[in-house]
């Protein structure tokens, strides 16, 4: 190859990288504008809603909270207490003890006065069999609680067992260690009951980070900004993702994922599609994609809804090791889901889902870390070849950095003007400072975890969930 | 002193793209600085406002309680009450304070009844709050109208019925919903007359709210729901079915029977459930005769009906479904058989072919 050909190739690569970055930034701007509109509309709609009527009504639809637990002995009793303290009237709780090796079951039996009952599971979805069986409390105060002890099959399998057992019209799938606010169920069920000509198949809510928050008796008492910079950075990241991203996708009816930490599903559709996929580590995303695909193929009007209220609080990883393991899993989950449902991508038959949501996830979520790494390698080669035009490089590096800081600040504004959870003096300044630091504190590790996720997906097929060691919200 | 001249000269000589990138960066940095400063100010004001609101709330609460308890038995206003009204009147034009007053008043309204409730209503008029609510009805923005109607409902202002009822067919469902709630909250079953001409769907959420509102009244004398059961609006039919169940409308059984052949499956299923509740024996016989023509959901629902209304003569029918492939039907059939012929049921363990059938029998046995 002569020098001119190399130069042409380099030029093309320049434009490709530039085009990709430009489109990513434009998409962020568009999504944040749409998110803002959707959040405002939501706040307007809910400014005169009488939630108490639904709360006390026996006519309200039944909801089953399904919470899988694996080796949660440390906090399971407290966490179940939190789940049982919801204000919604027509709900029950199924704790699926997924073959825990610790004494979770014994602790639950003791704390809630459980006794074994005869129960036959209608296995509409195949799952691992029961181990010790099904337990109900002898104490009427805990009549809403059911504990199912089964052989270990993973989170998806445990959720499927819950789907088989639930008798409710709707199921709320949540992580047992999440803190659900008392009014979470009636707020989350509203989208299902509000629509008249469209079937809402699932609804998700914003997930907030509970590290350092004060929790007493399963209730959120005080919201604090944690001292740990990694956790702080994740708070900012969650604000951006939920308030400036997912709300927009909700408006466009293009949501592909509802966080596994808390989501409500139309049980009939969840069962019709075969429940959670036990062969993926991204079961929360996969089931939404499958449910959407099912509805598109049935040609029925549907929606996946999203609400911005801070209803579910969870513990975020506070060490880089656990954080990387979590993001590695998220990456593999995304790859697996997109690959499994590749038929949808760029397929006009699937409407917005196929022509907008799927391509966006593929290009700006799935491919982003790979393109970023290629970009970095390409830059390194240019440095070695002394082909870097430093004036361009520096100006665009500064521009992208400044944009990312501004984008985070807009997310902070979005939070302040809506739910204003971080009220303490000085927190605003800390969050702004964090916006400047977060690209260095968090992003490199997200990139690393995503690349590791790609590597593990292709070369380490045996890797499954990975460790997610939690300290427990009760101790925060 | 730093000499910026070479830097500026260099910038001017740079290619246009670089100039644009630096220019944009400068604009964004300025925005960051301004937004950061404004964030600080805004947060300060939010905190201050929160404190002030809490303080106002306490003040108004005390005043309003004094207003309520200083009234005499003859219903005439005394000097204390008049001065409290005057004090509140001054604050009403200020939006933030008005909001607090309304919220305090509403909380009090929920806690009192009878004369005290009338006193609050009188205060609502005397302080001029009513005018602001009525002004809202003239607003072009839908959420302001809805808020206005909601407020009039909460303070039981039935005198403006004509002004509110015109929103019953408003293009926004939220406004329609608030109007419907206004009508039912203040005019009870009479208020349901909007259902006669309702062309838009009534959401499940709206239905629950209406039913909850109706159940709050002592007088549970319901009007004739037949026209709504025959409505062309499916959501009105579903709502009427709920009314039939809650208010035990035995007299509409014939109309309910007609709904068993309604084109909408959801309506047919709900009709079976309501007829089960109302002990519709005729419906049972009709459905039994047409069992094979029913959808699976209707069949399950019918077995639910049979569980409640079963008679020994149903035994041969039930026997046919003891080992049905559907879990719910099989479970219900076994339970029904057990209730009408325990001997035959006990003998089933010999005829059960699969392990699951045996375990199902074991389960029913334990019930």
From TrEMBL, chain A:
The keyword Cytoplasm does not apply. SUPFAM superfamilies: Nucleotide-diphospho-sugar transferases. Keywords: Glycosyltransferase, Membrane, Transferase, Transmembrane, Transmembrane helix. Pfam families: Chitin_synth_2, Glycos_transf_2. The keyword Ligase does not apply. The chain crosses the membrane at residues 12-34, 367-386, 392-411, 431-451. CDD domains: CESA_like. Residues 64-200 form the Glycosyltransferase 2-like domain. Belongs to the glycosyltransferase 2 family. This is Glycosyltransferase.
TrEMBL record, chain B:
The chain crosses the membrane at residues 20-39. InterPro entries: ARM-like, ARM-type_fold. It comes from the Bacteria. Keywords: Membrane, Transmembrane, Transmembrane helix. This is HEAT repeat domain-containing protein.
